Amino acid sequence: MNTANLIDPFGRHIDYVRISVTDRCDFRCTYCMDEDVTFLPRKDILSLEEIVTVAQTFIKMGSKKIRITGGEPLVRKNILWALDQISNTQGLEELTLTTNGSQLKKMSKDLFNAGVSRINVSLDTLKPEQFERMTRRDKFHQVIDGIEEMNRYAFRRNKINSVILKNQNDDEIVDLAKFALLRDMDISFIEEMPLGVITDHDRAAAYMSSDEVIRLLDAHLTLTPSALKTGGPTRYFDVEHHTGHIGVISPHSHNFCSTCNRVRLTAEGRLLLCLGNEHSMDLRPYLRVPAKHPFTLEDAIVKALALKPEKHHFNLNEEPQILRFMSATGG
Ligand code: SAM
Ligand code: SF4
Predict the structure, then answer these.
(1) Site residues for ligand 2, CB cut-off 6 Å
(2) Mean pLDDT confidence for 19-43
């Protein structure tokens, strides 16, 4: 097998897989889930062995990059074992992780030793009260300590991810950028996506476009479009006098579907071909009782890629058409 198998009907090479290892989380970010969210029954969640099997199958088929996410991936028991197995698979170039940072103080060293090469930490505010308002948890200092601990290890490059909501944290864009740049980290500002029904705020009213974010930053920092590409939807800018980059992820204002190189595995084993569409294939039956199926897991993955749609359509003024939350999706 080689990457020829991982090409979709629109000629895009799918060499990046994002794997959600749990839908559970120790935070309740207001844009991601409600306080009383219902999690999946444990029996429906893939075991760590099953997750490793899917990851290794994708790598064998030519995937070069795997990102582990969730929910909060670091609250999954024994996750370090799975990370170690995946990072040691021949052919993989990069194992990366997205986390809310709550466990980084105690786990950074183990993550580095398990072969994680880059970490994205979500941090939307530098004010403890606003942090509690946005995550519904009083863990600001724990996260900041975790980021400082992570930066003691030689990860290839680390990044902050900030979802910007108008009238909530849009006054902190410059401070967040400086926080990352002073630590030689990148930072991406993300437009909120209408994934799942939330009750905390009106997503359309809270919408802040990436162009507004860049205009604001331009008044304080000297930005020029960067050649940096990390194989994702982020558009990067170089920043004068800094090694870190500023990026924007703009699912609404700049459709990035034409260069989409990724698929997502949900915590229960559904391969999602697009974040903004329901096209998917359930891989769990191919993992749990393979003898019953005429197809192998590899065949199922090839068939699934044929379902990848050309693009997503998000409309903030309509009811969400995607009812699953980012946490269940592998954001
Ligand atoms: N718990 C980890 C974290 O927060 O980094 C990993 C999973 S989280 C779902 C991954 C990323 O999705 C985070 O950066 C989070 O801010 C982002 N996210 C969650 N819901 C979102 C939404 N509705 N729109 C845009 N980004 C969202
Ligand atoms: Fe948890 Fe991440 Fe969703 Fe926040 S964004 S609730 S940390 S999964």
Answers:
(1) 25, 27-29, 32-33, 70-72, 100, 122, 326-327
(2) 94
